[in-house]
Specification:
Layout lengths: L1 H5 L3 H25 L2 H18 L2 E7 L10 H13 L7 E4 L8 E4 L4 E6 L2 E11 L13 E10 L3 H23 L3 E5 L7 E2 L2 E2 L2 E5 L13 H15 L2 H7 L4 E7 L6 H12 L2 E4 L8 H9 L5 E5 L2 H4 L20 H9 L4 H9 L9 E7 L7 H4 L6 E4 L5 H12 L7 H10 L4 H8 L8 H71 L1
Parallel strand pairs: 7-12, 11-14, 11-15, 12-13, 13-14
Antiparallel strand pairs: 1-6, 2-3, 4-5, 5-6, 7-10, 8-9
């Protein structure tokens, strides 16, 4: 310590060094403020070039947002899912999130945390960065203020391995982890006036967690037909390469038709649970134009079911295509008014393009389902094969469907009343919803005999009502026939009386002629 104290100006020398460093930093900040951006970019490129010669490491940046997209980059999402699944356990800091409609906490690597990964003998480093844009300009979205990215660094001798094998491995494993961890959701489309931009872009869909318990095991349907549908769904789910080979978009259409209460919505939920797909419930009455319909389709994701329920009641898309009729208007309208009215509605042509046009090939692994109570009212072009590939009739409850419901509601597979119920179901039309309601226990203690007896009573009452309705119809038909015969007889008598009067007139004329001759 004595030697240090003896050195003249030593303390003053260190103070001078720090003062000089502070002055240089202040001077550099001032230079950056007034330096033209062209020169700034040139200097930054020169610095990176010099650094590349000094270090043997290569860095790849994966930005959170792509330049031409409102949403998050697919590569960024896949990288985050991969690191969360494989390397997050070794991270010192994590960020917890609770996604909308989910009951599971999602963990992700926090900002400015570095992770190490090994692949095929190569060691790579991942670092999550966040750059804050300092500006006086008002930002409308957090993405304009904060820029997040993952930076992947590795030795240049592993460059070929990383580009050819490691990055595809990260994308594939990240997508698989996303599918495993995702919560299935039920979406509905927002009115176009509510398509305000959120953090990740316009919100054209709103969603909740999909928790419908329906499965094919609990679906009241003929087992053979049910198995046929399951086989078709499995073929579609595993048919990506097959669809590419035959040159078709990876999509499939199903038309569910039948009376109300036959389980069309339950079938859709069973399909979603079987395939583990999201469901997009498209409300056509909220869509103002074909352009909006196309935008909604683009915003859907793969592994999803797009549903239009009661399409015959949604908008005027039924019947034959109508020719436009132009009527003269007393008041002259602006030339742009008529075109605006024509464009601001969903047309049959727009819906056909939505199902089977070029836009339907955007993305893949989508199922489109229409439901209707009146298949005969739909335009044949809308439901032809290739658009609605499989037509599924949801009919009245059969005995096999009843057995499924009895197992679900009462836990019985055989009973002495099953024979009567089989006979009555063959004679009476009753929907699965009505059968299930009669099987529903009215107390915690399941009284199987009482529930089955109630169903037998309901079936008998329905049979008697059907017979009474048929007899009433026959009486009305008979009354109509009697009225027709009376009208015919009245017409006959009228005609005969007319003929008699004509004959009398002719005789009077002849008698008058004879009297005139004699006179």
């Amino acid at each position: 310590m004595d030697m240090v104290d003896d050195v003249p100006g030593f303390g003053y020398g260190w103070a001078g060094v720090w003062s000089t460093v502070a002055s240089l930093l202040f001077l550099w900040s001032m230079v950056q403020e007034h330096l033209p951006f062209q020169l700034d970019d040139h200097l930054a490129a020169l610095a990176r070039h010099l650094l590349a010669h000094l270090t043997p490491y290569v860095t790849i940046t994966v930005d959170e947002h792509a330049g031409d997209s409102f949403g998050r980059s697919e590569a960024y999402v896949a990288a985050e899912a991969y690191l969360t699944a494989t390397c997050a356990a070794r991270a010192s800091r994590l960020r917890a999130e609770l996604p909308d409609g989910s009951d599971r906490v999602s963990l992700a690597v926090d900002d400015h945390v570095e992770l190490v990964d090994d692949f095929a003998g190569a060691r790579v480093w991942w670092r999550k960065t966040k750059d804050v844009h300092r500006s006086n300009v008002i930002a409308w979205s957090p993405r304009e203020v904060e820029r997040r990215a993952y930076r992947l660094s590795f030795h240049r001798r592993h460059r070929a391995l990383v580009e050819a094998a490691y990055l595809p491995h990260v994308i594939a494993e990240g997508r698989a982890a996303t599918v495993r961890n995702r919560q299935r959701r039920l979406f509905t489309n927002n009115p176009s006036g509510d398509w305000a931009s959120g953090d990740d872009g316009p919100r054209v869909w709103s969603h909740v967690k999909l928790e419908h318990p329906s499965t094919f095991a609990t679906l009241a349907m003929d087992p053979a037909r049910k198995q046929e549908i399951v086989d078709d769904l499995e073929m579609f789910r595993d048919g990506k390469d097959y669809y590419a080979m035959v040159g078709k978009a990876w999509k499939r259409g199903y038309l569910l038709f039948g009376p109300p209460g036959t389980g069309k919505s339950t079938m859709i939920a069973a399909m979603a649970n079987f395939l583990d797909y999201d469901v997009y419930d498209l409300e056509l009455t909220a869509v103002k134009s074909n352009t909006e319909l196309r935008r909604l389709f683009i915003e859907t994701t793969g592994k999803s079911i797009i549903v239009v329920e009661d399409i015959d009641c949604s908008i005027d898309l039924t019947g034959k295509r109508k020719k436009k009729k132009y009527k003269k208007k007393k008041k002259k309208m602006p030339p742009w008014g008529d075109d605006d009215d024509e464009e601001r509605k969903v047309t049959l042509s727009g819906l056909l393009n939505f199902i089977d046009g070029l836009w339907s090939a955007c993305g893949g692994e989508r199922i489109i389902i229409f439901t209707t109570n009146h298949k005969e009212k739909l335009d044949p072009a809308l439901i032809r094969r290739g658009r609605m590939d499989m037509h599924i009739e949801m009919s009245y409850c059969c005995f096999q469907g009843f057995k499924v419901l009895a197992k679900n509601y009462l836990g019985v597979a055989e009973h002495e009343l099953f024979g009567d119920i089989r006979r009555l179901l063959e004679e009476v039309e009753m929907t699965p919803a009505d059968v299930a309601e009669n099987l529903m226990p009215r107390s915690k203690k399941k009284d199987v005999d009482a529930c089955l007896g109630k169903l037998v009573k309901a079936l008998k009452e329905a049979k008697e009502a059907a017979l009474a309705k048929a007899l009433a119809g026959n009486k009305e038909d008979g009354a109509d026939e009697d009225d027709g015969e009376e009208e015919d007889s009245d017409d006959g008598s009228t005609s005969s009386s007319d003929e008699d009067s004509d004959e009398e007139d002719s005789k009077k004329k002849e008698m008058s002629k004879d009297s005139n001759k004699k006179g």
